[in-house]
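Following the same procedure, sequence and fold were stored together, as reproduced here:

>
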Amino acid sequence: MVVLWKGLHYCMWMADKPLIQEELADNICSVMHLFQDDVQMLLFIQVYFDTTAREWAGIDRLRLDKFMMLMRRFLRQCFAWLQRKKWKKPLLKRFIMTLCKAPISPSGNKCPDGIRYHFADIYLEELARTAGTALSPKKVLIFLHPYIKFLAMCPNKGLVSFVRSRIFEEIIQLSDIGINPEDEKEMAAIQAFGLQTGEKPQEDEFCLRFNYESISRWLIHFASDTKKCLERNRKILYELAKMFDDLSRGIYPLKDLEIPSDDEDPNDLLEDEDIQRVVNEIKLLNRGELPKKRKAKPAKEKKNKKQKKAKMSEESADQTEQQGSPC
């Protein structure tokens, strides 16, 4: 299986032009539907992530997009395979355990950060695209469980912040309480973005059903476990638990961004001196010169200089008196 995936990886490496890359990605992902044995299928998934993690550092920026696209379509086919198996709970748990070994691993030793960032970015989106409302809230919670554990155990602050905003806060933002009924018509008129070539926008892009109270309980469960939860991550879990508890009671927990009204003039917020200073710096930059930075002198140095000047003036005054006085 390792040799097979290494060959498929470098087959994708050599693929040129977007349409050829997308067709090859679909053909590679369709291989998983040929497996009749679930154990072999899970091994195929695990070896794919192991191979991608091993070769990730060698992928240059020009080839990075097509491998990220391959990961998105591979995850989509994984969810399609689970859907074909009717989302059986034992199979779901084994699949989640496979993901926890690489792309949802709290430790950075098993998987590069780039894969974990990208996987968190596409996880719920692809699950909603495949499952939709057909997946019960209890089974959706099984898919959220590894990321709750991830928030508790991951030492990387950047990844924890990204997972919090991209997974959990996005659930809150796209809930029925988070969407203003007055804005639904405007949102429906906005076309979907981020679609691959040849894909059509769907009417319900995010249509998973969640049990907010159960999510809150699981967050509290991991936050209260001193062995599994890092001390600095405990506050984040409790904050999210409070948010989902409020959401279960019909209260929107996130603060809306304050957008300035049309009547306010942005020039009123700036002083004339600041505007003139910025204009002068832009003129210097256009000439190819860099504006000089003024260094603020410490207060002690200013006092010492004043004292020295005062002493110098006193000494000079004494000398003039001595010279002017008769012997």
In short: The CA atoms of residues 76 and 178 lie 27 Å apart.
